[in-house]
Amino acid sequence: MVIKGVMHQTGAGNDFKPANQSHDLGNDDQAFWAMAAMSAAENKFPNPPKDDPQWLELVQAVFNEQAADWNKRKDTCGGGMMWQIFEYNNGFGYKNTISNGCFFNMGARLAAYTGNKTYADWAEKAFDWTHDIGLITHEWQFLDGTYTTSNLNCTKMNPLRWSYNAGVFLNGAAAMYRFTNESDLWKERLQNIANGLRDVFFNDQGIMNEITCEPAQTCNNDQQTFKAHTSRWMAATIKQAPFLTDQLMPLLRNSSIAAAKQCSGPGNACGLEWTKEDQYDGINGPGEQMAALQVFLSNLIKTAKPPADSETGDSRGDPSAGTSSNQPTIKPPATITQKDKAGAVILTIIMVVATIFGTVWVSMG
């Protein structure tokens, strides 16, 4: 069921761009499917039928397309991913943190899986751009995005903060830490991101809180899932950067206990405001259930195997996937100049189910 559900979304180009989503498909939406496929490859989830594109190949297709899109838009703000893929969609003139974080995450994890430094170079470029443009603050907080319209050229920031922006960069930084053989640079960045995540999105009792919408109960369907993704990325980080275990595991444990207390609605439905503990918040839906289930499963990470790579994994790749060329490698990123620096979800149930099944698969393995 999971394999069929994910493969149904691949589209004619085997790049998670189904034609029926062209009017609302963002770079982040496309990347979330690719990251689900990346998790499948890392966790040695059963492969699709051999005549279909494989997990790794799907990720490479999305990454190659987005790398080409970066180069196509680099005259605006010196780089960075637009939120929307197609120019006719609302939000095209917005470069948001989650789209750039997903691109960074894919590049870092592809580098760790394949050993190909070109992916790591792109990941480094995406991280540096996000930091230099101001979406990663000096306090290691992640702002929502920046505007390119009205000649703003990324000089105006949207200050809203969401947990999954920090989470996607945390997980990507962990992959870079692994790829660089535990370099001091990525260890420091990992620690700073983890500190910022803890300080902003966890209360004094170590319980996760989606601060921008939870207190006012204004979280939309997408935002109700953010804690699910953040929990998973925190757990995946622990597996790749064990030095953060003592910091992150208590946060996951305390959040899971509080989430369990919130599962006191009709039929044990789970609420979203874990900080209320056993005072049910009266709000339930797929996002709330996903968030609770994922934080529960994240506590099993110590029993999981490390993410697979090209030597230990079994997913077939195609470095030229998603390109019009038959060249076997992606193009390296252009050098960032001083001029560049100066210029510088819609999510579906199937995708999240794939993520959850991946976690269960790992814990059972």
From TrEMBL:
Major subcellular site: membrane
SUPFAM superfamilies on file: Six-hairpin glycosidases (SSF48208)
Localization in the cell: Endomembrane system
MF GO annotations: mannan endo-1,6-alpha-mannosidase activity
Catalytic activity: Random hydrolysis of (1->6)-alpha-D-mannosidic linkages in unbranched (1->6)-mannans
Top-rank taxon: Eukaryota
InterPro entries in the record: 6-hairpin_glycosidase_sf, Glyco_hydro_76, Mannan-1_6-alpha_mannosidase
TM spans (from-to): 342-362
Name of the molecule in the record: mannan endo-1,6-alpha-mannosidase
Organism: Ascosphaera apis ARSEF 7405
